[in-house]
Inverse folding.
């Protein structure tokens, strides 16, 4: 009997072994990735190879059904997981289980200056994407803030390449730890939304490498599995298949092995797409099927036209196989990854992560006379005025628009946090955007108000006069020509007569706090008068809670501006030097194209401010706390470095106030004498430290040759010139606290 059983067991073991021996290599995840990719490639027909290079629906590509290679499902990105749309259209699919946690805008994440928070953000959003069965998250966006008018600045990580590079890496790692790919976008130079399909930025190599590439390079080096090209052109060719950007730089110089995905509808030609390094085409048609084509996707530039060209010998198989390998790699890293996380949705952890990003990203720009935080002993009556105190902001703005499970508005959160301590009275003040709808998703808020501007102002003035402190919530919103995709702003000023309203409210009650809910810089002509100003961003689901935490003092603010808040538009190089939004010309197909010389070159943001000795509204890196920090003297661990040696700078920082707080110490480097024109200083390190009252910590930051180098376009390499350098410990780009000299030999 025992013998018989053993025999049966043996047979079982044998058949399992036999089965696994038969398992095709591409399905065997004990085998190296490249071996599996080659095996899959060798089994695919020409038609199957071409099929995986383009969409089969609005957001998916087909995989290889015959071989059990799964589909790839993409989703926007980058602030939360987008609601489902119909197979072929942008229209809502009307699912009832696709509400997500809306996370704060990435500009708010950048304002935390905290890579740990970026990792938590990435991990959380990646979990939501995994739970929803998505393989590729269309984000993060790391286009550099070149002009405050760019409609998508809120989706990006600010003006500084070092800061954006430092924040994008943990975001990518966090998302991908779930087996969900990031799709880093929009590579490259999609720095404006006006004429976004036809802008042709004219940018020199030094500027590319020093300003516009570093965040993308950091993401590529961190192993981002896919990249999205931009709609714009570069040197006359569309970015999504630009041979310089995709072949020479991304896949060549940077040795990146991921897949390039087009922006949706960014492909215009088969030959250019094939040769220019594009691997996957998406979004070329929106309702092709409705137009009577039996399968619109077969007519994509990288579908039948490519197949025909391959069969006719017009295109080579080597290029095809390279694309296929990249898509297979992406698939094996995501949808074929058996160990990938199942994810989770709107969990307590995600709510907490969302709130933490907001709490750490909100920036206290000004706080004269310590008007903030709200002090219930003095502030018995709190006036809350302005549309942005009640407006839900998650819906709108373009592809980052979300269907959030919930969104807490500032007024509700303030009422809750001040309950029993102070009376909160609300007045609308102005009516801006009342739509509350984007692409079929609605907030279900009715913000209609038929009163005239005069009536609204009169009510607001009355409420302000009766109060002990006035919180005016204004700024921008997600409607067209504000913080929204496909449009740039038309004006640097706040909309809806807010400047005048703020002046009027200030006269009614000078204890005025301006809370700027916006994702980009705005003019603040009232900034000298108004005693307290808070930059509150779009905070997603927990928006109201995070801003109330800061205003009530439950949380001590620690955000710092990730861009320059220009006093006026002509402080920004892109505008001062007059190359925005470009000059109409024709591309090589005879289509309209707008040449847009980046005349300011590397002098973007504070680099332009420094060069021209301007005084911005608020400098890059600026942000206050409810306590104060004193910086001691910065020291270097050596006076000189050579070659690849590193140097460590240390500065003691003391919390001089009576509450705990966090300070981001910024390290800027100056090349004292260079053979080329160099910025007065550049951010090359930062560290956020938490300090108890009275506590001192030594903050150390180590840099090497990289931090001293500029990009020599002729040699096409980074060069650190021997000579004297300076390292500055600073509280912002406009507030250097201590400087030390050192030499590079
Ligand atoms: C946007 C992308 C987005 C894509 C898919 C495009 O219009 O530029 O950022 O990921 O649509 O929604």
């Amino acid at each position: 009997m025992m013998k018989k059983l053993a025999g049966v067991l043996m047979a079982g073991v044998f058949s399992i072994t036999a089965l696994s021996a038969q398992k095709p290599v591409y399905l065997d995840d004990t085998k190296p990735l490249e071996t599996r990719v080659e095996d899959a490639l060798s089994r695919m027909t020409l038609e199957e190879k071409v099929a995986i290079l383009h969409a089969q629906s609005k957001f998916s590509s087909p995989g290889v059904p015959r071989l059990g290679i799964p589909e790839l499902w993409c989703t926007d990105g980058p602030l939360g997981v987008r609601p489902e749309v119909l197979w072929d259209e942008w229209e809502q699919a009307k699912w009832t289980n696709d509400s997500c946690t809306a996370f704060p805008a990435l500009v708010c994440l950048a304002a935390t200056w905290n890579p740990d928070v970026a990792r938590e953000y990435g991990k959380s959003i990646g979990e939501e994407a995994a739970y929803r069965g998505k393989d590729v998250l269309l984000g993060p966006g790391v286009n550099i803030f070149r002009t405050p008018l760019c409609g998508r600045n809120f989706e990006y990580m600010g003006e500084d390449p070092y800061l954006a590079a430092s924040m994008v890496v943990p975001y990518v790692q966090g998302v991908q730890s779930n087996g969900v790919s990031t799709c880093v976008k929009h590579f490259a130079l999609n720095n404006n939304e006006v004429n976004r399909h036809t802008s042709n930025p004219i940018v020199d190599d030094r500027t590319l490498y020093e300003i516009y590439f570093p965040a993308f390079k950091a993401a590529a080096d961190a192993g981002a599995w896919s990249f999205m090209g931009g709609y714009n052109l570069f040197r006359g060719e569309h970015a999504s298949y630009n041979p310089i950007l995709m072949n020479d730089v991304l896949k060549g110089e940077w040795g990146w092995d991921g897949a390039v995905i087009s922006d949706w509808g960014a492909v215009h030609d088969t030959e250019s797409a094939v040769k220019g390094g594009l691997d996957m085409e998406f979004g070329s048609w929106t309702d092709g099927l409705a137009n009577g084509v039996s399968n619109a996707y077969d007519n994509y530039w990288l579908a039948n036209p490519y197949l025909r060209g391959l069969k006719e010998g017009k295109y080579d198989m080597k290029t095809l196989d390279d694309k296929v390998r990249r898509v297979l790699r992406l698939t094996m890293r995501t949808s074929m990854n058996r160990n990938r996380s199942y994810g989770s949705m709107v969990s307590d952890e995600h709510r907490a992560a969302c709130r933490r990003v907001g709490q750490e990203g909100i920036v206290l720009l000004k706080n004269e006379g310590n008007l903030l935080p709200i002090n219930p002993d003095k502030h018995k009556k709190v006036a809350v005025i302005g549309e942005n105190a009640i407006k839900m902001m998650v819906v709108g703005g373009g592809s980052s628009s979300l269907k959030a499970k919930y969104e807490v508005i500032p007024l509700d959160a303030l009422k809750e946090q001040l309950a029993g301590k102070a009376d909160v009275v609300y007045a609308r003040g102005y009516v801006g955007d009342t739509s509350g709808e984007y692409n079929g998703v609605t907030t279900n808020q009715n913000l209609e108000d038929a009163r005239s501007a005069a009536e609204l102002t009169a009510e607001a003035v009355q409420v302000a006069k009766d109060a002990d402190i006035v919180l005016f919530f204004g700024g921008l919103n997600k409607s067209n020509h504000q913080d929204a995709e496909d449009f740039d702003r038309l004006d640097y000023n706040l909309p809806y007569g807010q400047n005048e309203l703020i002046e009027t409210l200030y006269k009614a009650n000078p204890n005025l706090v301006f809370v700027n809910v916006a994702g980009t810089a705005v003019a603040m002509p009232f900034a000298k008068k108004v005693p307290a100003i808070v930059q509150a961003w779009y905070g997603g689901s927990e928006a109201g809670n995070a801003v109330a935490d800061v205003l009530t003092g439950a949380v001590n603010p620690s955000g710092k501006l990730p861009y320059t808040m220009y006093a006026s538009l002509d402080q920004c190089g892109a505008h001062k030097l007059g190359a925005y939004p470009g000059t109409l010309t024709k591309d090589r197909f005879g289509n309209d194209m707008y040449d847009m010389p980046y005349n300011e070159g590397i002098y973007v943001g504070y680099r332009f401010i420094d060069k021209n000795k301007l005084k911005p509204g608020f400098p890059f890196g600026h942000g206050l706390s409810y306590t104060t920090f004193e910086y001691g003297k910065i020291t270097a661990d050596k006076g000189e470095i050579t070659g690849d040696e590193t140097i460590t700078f240390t500065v003691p920082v003391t919390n001089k106030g009576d509450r705990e707080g966090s300070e981001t110490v910024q390290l800027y480097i100056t090349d004292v004498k260079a053979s080329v024109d160099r910025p007065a200083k550049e951010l090359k390190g930062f560290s956020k430290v938490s300090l108890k009252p009275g506590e001192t910590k030594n903050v150390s930051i180590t840099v090497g040759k990289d931090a001293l180098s500029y990009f020599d376009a002729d040699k096409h390499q980074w060069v650190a010139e021997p000579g004297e350098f300076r390292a500055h410990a600073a509280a912002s780009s406009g507030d250097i606290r201590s400087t030390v000299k050192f030499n590079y030999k």
Summary: The radius of gyration is 27 Å.
